[in-house]
Amino acid sequence: MAKITLYASKASRSLAGYWVLEELGIPYTVVDVDLRARKHLEPEFLKINPSGRVPVVSVDGMIVSERPAICALLADRFGYGSLAPKIDCQDRGPYLKWLVYATTVVDPAIAVRASDLDAPLQHTTWDTAQGAVEILEHALDGQTWLLGDWFTAADVAIGSIIAMARFNNLLPESQILNDYVERLKERPAFQRSEKLTWPPEVFSS
Predict the structure, then answer these.
(1) Is the peptide bond prior to 55 cis by the omega test (within 30 degrees of 0)?
(2) 3-class SS of residue 14
(3) According to the model, what pLDDT value does residue 120 have?
(4) Fold exhibited by the domain 91-191
(5) What global pTM score does this model have?
């Protein structure tokens, strides 16, 4: 059995790392990299991920960072054909697109909106938050998940960002995305992951 270690921190973007592992239902251990205690800047962790960011996953010693890459690796390795479409499946292309779209478009669009910055390059380099919402609305209109009735790791990558952004009121209003988030929140794996990422003590500290 593979030895899987998740490097994560509470109150962070580690939700996606927890979530994909919980969806797969495979055993893993967690190393707490407390961001508030600045553990992510300590030399020991920087050897694992020089960018000093979480989540990071180790699978039998192979280190992978960046949420879409973590989702892709784990889904292909442990959920090939279920959480990840197979390479010859017609859904493989859209699946990969949404994995990449999560952090190349949605994340920066939300960051710009949250910071209230004037970033003209977003129109040609990624998109505005409104533009990202409209693309996702088009994809989800009339269907349950990004690939229709098939929940995949792409929903983890996109959904983890959208759920956090919606909680923090960082996205333009969208009933389609509101409904999508509610469906995501009904998944037991999401509920377990949310509790691990945002335990009650985070809100009381």
Answers:
(1) yes
(2) coil
(3) 58
(4) Glutathione S-transferase Yfyf (Class Pi); Chain A, domain 2 (1.20.1050)
(5) 0.93
